[in-house]
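Example 5.3 — Site-specific recombinase XerD
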Amino acid sequence: MDGSITRITLSDGSTRYRARYRDPGGRQHERRFARKVDAQRWLDEATSAMVTQTWTAPVRGRITVEEWSDRWLSSQTGVKPSTLYRYENLLRTHVLPSWSRYRLADVTHADVAVWVAELLTQGSAPGTVRQAHRVFSLLLGLAVRDGRIPRNPAERVPLPRVTRQEPRFLNHDEVERLADAAGEDGDVIRLLAYTGLRFGEMAALRVRRVDFLRRRLTIAEAVTEVGGRLEFGTPKTHQQRTVPLPATLAESLARHCEGKQGDDLLRTTASGTVLRLRNWRRAVFDPAVRTAGLSDVTPHDLRHTAASLAVASGATVKSVQRMLGHASAAMTLDVYSGLFDDDLAALADRMDAAARAATDARVGAVWARPAAETPTKGKRPGQRGGPRGDRTHNPRIKSPLLCQLS
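Solution (predicted structure tokens):
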């Protein structure tokens, strides 16, 4: 890189050092400094950035965070409508109130760390703070890839820990009490509690995706409410999966399929519209919880219940993962590790039994060894001399050497 430092004298007699260099595109950049060492440092930083290919034109980082957020949102074409809606809310309520007037180049790592701490002191939940930070970091990450800033100042910022709440599990009796209290919607509660479907997956389940012969449900679609509008799309992990259908549910689901076409929804409201979680919970689920004598139960707890009942029936981690549609078995263990404690106890018992068997086999092998050569009576094997072993090794000496002290 061609760079130079020139000493200039201003009209008031003071001295300045003008540093200049040309970027890879041939455009000249210059700054003036009161000290030559500062001018040299600025040139060195620019040279290092060009060598490591992290140099960015200063003018490109002068766009404000608010202006850049519009471009970032318009680029989010691979996310679900519900995710995009959540991004917009987080930007509006947490990110832009603090950063809208900042230029991208002026955002520092320390400022981001202070902002995260302020969100916590203002009463935001740790999970909300982490989500807001993620949105801001994604926004800045696009600016890095677009060559507007050299690095992402939101990376490696200390974030609050999120304490996962203990899942609420219902047993078979509680599920049946809750289903009976829900009346005609009892089949919906049983379907959620015995298959582990998300509510949006259940509401989007169509008749043609129920295989009564093989007793399988094909989960290929989900519906969510975004800003008051219903949005149909793929399931949460974008992956289609097959879920086993218990025989106890097949008959009731068959009645709901009567007179319907293959693309018709399996379960709807009494008026034939799509089930909405908020409305269904307020009108059906919460009253049923009170009638059944339960407390602190949410519709999502039915999904936890399906996992616990499956594990109690002998399901493996991989089977539970496939049923629930988790991205990995590790995620299943993160949420439901406590359900597999019995498996660990059984594993310990099996390992203990194997260790005892190995020990018994070793003892039996020792007793089965042939007897060794019988030593001479009164002597140990390899012993020379008398029975006491007090003879010296010199055969000429017939008794121990004794020394009498006077």
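Remark. The chain has three domains: 4-52, 65-146, 172-339.
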